[in-house]
Amino acid sequence: MSLFAIAFKNVKKNVSFYFLYLVSVAFILTVFFSFVSFSMNGVMLAKISEDGRVETMSRTIAVFLMAFVLFYMSYSNQFFMKRRMRELGIYALLGYRKSAMLKLLAFENVLICLLSLVVGIVLGAAAHQGIVSGVVGLLDLSIDRSAVPFLNGKAVLFSVLFVIGVIAALSISNWRLLRKTTLLHMVRLEKSGEKKMKIRPVSAVIGLILMVSGDVLALDSRRGKESVWSKIGVSPIGLLMTGLIVCGTALFVYSFLPYVMQKLKQRERLLYREISIVAIPKFMNRIRTNAKTLIMLSLLSAATLGVFGSTVLTSYYPVAALTRIIPSALEFKIERPEQAEQAILALNRTVGEGGFQSKITELIKAGSTTASLPPEYSLAKEKGREPGFELMSSSDYASLLKQQGKKTKDLLLDDKEAILVKYRPDPKRQHVGEIYSLSLADNRTVDVTVKRITLDNPIGFNNSVGTLIVSDGVFRQFADSGLPVTRVMSIDGPGLRDSKEAYEALRPVLGDNPYFASVYARTYEITYSNSSTFLLLGFLTVLFFIASGSILYFHNISAVTYDHDDYTILSKMGYSRKKLKKLIHRQILVLYSIPFILGLAHSICGLFCYKALLMDDVLGQSSKFILPIALALSISVFIYLIYYVVTKRSCYRIALKN
């Protein structure tokens, strides 16, 4: 019988064992082929990339994708090699040379990769078409769909060459393993790795301290200018934080977990139970061989959850922040007297009379002689904004909030009171009770005391970032003094925040007005500029999920397979199937929980650090950050739960078969 025939029979005979491997490799190649097809889609790139940024990102992410696919397939190949060492030992006893065994393994890899590649190309082409349809629909693009073929010839050729390269790399890896492995090691390779673990309390404590220090360092970024990130620098602290987390996690798994298990083992009341008496010593016995996998999975889970969470957060928050950046659906500063009337006429033709509300608000720029002023007074000074408050009357403020559908309670002001509209929340400085001396045109001053502060800005930041609400009497006093008055028109109505028609109706009238702001246009701009980034990061996230879930699956299957005889002995000792399932469930749960909990803790700290360093918090609402993070983590838990259930059922079937 030829080697190829033996390889074909091996794959066919073990199809149930290879099934998830085939599925996972096919999924990974599906993601890879859809990414390659998208990055080589000239029609789409011409539409969404004006400055070559997407092409550059695609090339960068392609390197990560190829490295990750190679890593995953190498890991899986090593797993199956160890699983089949006894079988290879029998081949050696039958007289097969190592070169013949290498060819046999290469044939099997070719069969598996070829089948996965075919599935990956077909599903990847379909996924690519779906992605193109989604991007076209999301960004409202106009493209010639016939110019986007179902199968991109260049993408197919690139993927085939890449898989050939992967097979060559796997063959070299197999040859190195076979060359240094003796016949005896082939038979006992799995058992030879299980050496007794030394308990090192000092290393355990150091590992815990390093790991916690890394996460605390990430959370320190929330202190803003007082944090070490601001005082020392993002790059050095970022490297230090990464080093602490990586080293701490490694020592935590190598030393702290065995130390804890040793302590549990010494507690007789806990140890001498039907499940614990087996599970704890088995974990202690396997921790050395499991450690590298647990460390790698912990860091991989942290990266997966971190990338996924930051992608969801970044795509959600800028859109949510538009409620403050542009509080009305449409807004513009009136630069010419006829602009307001022209805008109303244009909307009457598009939306219809009564389909919207409009209000013109007057703002007066006023300086102050007070020494200590809020940061909003001089905000954006470097961008050319003249320092000062934009005064608004309390009646205009109440009327505009009502038009925008916001609450209008507690807005009564006397002539000595004011409401300060904050640009961003500042818990350390509340400003209430502070007195500001506002300058009139003739250099006289009017003192007002801050009655309260608010984040309910009625005018967009494009037109006012230092809004101070004063009484109608004080506002008239400033208007009469001769200070220049700015007029801002705000337009609201049902569905106007998402109305493309309303925005396009005003463009001919306000196209040259730099202060024209539209929620629809801004939302589209955010989506357009970030869609390619989110899409490319999405490819990485999907690959991370598939890889981490599959590695956990293979690792548990391997452990249960080698413990099959132990379960048989336990069954003869009186352990029922229910208790054996409980024992297996406990073992699987531990191997899933450790990397997931560590990865979850690191990713949450990392997301808070990401938010503090890279995102401008103008909403001041924790729920706006927690909601997308919770959503991303919930989806992650659901995906891991699916892998967990599949793993548990497969392990039950292997362990309990006669």
Automatic annotation (TrEMBL):
Keyword presence, Iron: no
Membrane topology, from the record: Multi-pass membrane protein
Domain of life: Bacteria
Keywords in alphabetical order: Cell membrane, Membrane, Transmembrane, Transmembrane helix, Transport
GO CC, any one term: plasma membrane
Keyword Transmembrane: yes
Location of this chain's protein in the cell: Cell membrane
A Pfam family recorded for this sequence: FtsX
Occurrences of domain ABC3 transporter permease C-terminal (ranges): 60-181
GO terms of biological process kind: transmembrane transport
Residues annotated as transmembrane: 18-40, 60-80, 101-127, 155-178, 199-219, 239-260, 294-317, 534-554, 588-613, 625-646
PANTHER family with a match to the protein in the record: ABC TRANSPORTER PERMEASE (PTHR46795:SF3), ABC TRANSPORTER PERMEASE-RELATED-RELATED (PTHR46795)
Family from the record: Belongs to the ABC-4 integral membrane protein family.
The name this protein goes by in its record: ABC transporter permease
The organism of origin for this protein: Paenibacillus ihbetae
